[in-house]
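Predict structure. Chain length: 218.
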Amino acid sequence: MLRHSYFHANLQRAAIVLLALGLTQRIQFLAREEERSRLESEGKSQFIAHVSHELRTPMNGVLGMPALLRDHLFEPKVFHYNNVIYQSGLALLSIINGVLDAATTDAPTPLAGQFEGVTPFDSSSEKPLTILVAEDNATNQLVVEKVVEKMGHSARIVSNGKEALNAITDNPDMFDLVLMDCEMPVMNGYTATIEIREYEPMNNRKPIPIVALTANAM
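Prediction complete.
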């Protein structure tokens, strides 16, 4: 009888141990699956952000240059041809946006929140502004520079976030506004914005307005 009770107790303990091991393995498996899913989602988000930037960046040039040419075209036929190019570019951009936005619905980019807290900019100001433009694409640099000049302001162009940060810290009173591209080599716009925001309170500087200049909306 004692031997039977001892065997039965050992059997119960063994069953509990096996159950605990099974639960532990299941929990570990679910944790690994959750981590794998998270990494896949982040990878997909970063890939979509990269593809979005690479597709939309040249479209800014395709649309921006015809828009600038309008003021220099006086022959109706040439003006019409230029307008056809512009409208075709808009149609293509709409298709690109639709495809990328549908993909982004399943994988929102985790970097978007980096621009939270950026100082709003009053675009109604009539004062000529000195604008720092951080943009690595040469065509977009030209388009933004000419648009800024057309609006009666002046632009200084830099090619990456590091140059933008240096321009701000070297000449903190020079600029009224920063147009910051998000995806750039050396230092991207998110990191540059964070470092500018860290620099300002440490040096008793008023936050300069920073506007995200992305390939999604330029």
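Summary: Residues 60 and 140 are 7 Å apart (CA to CA).
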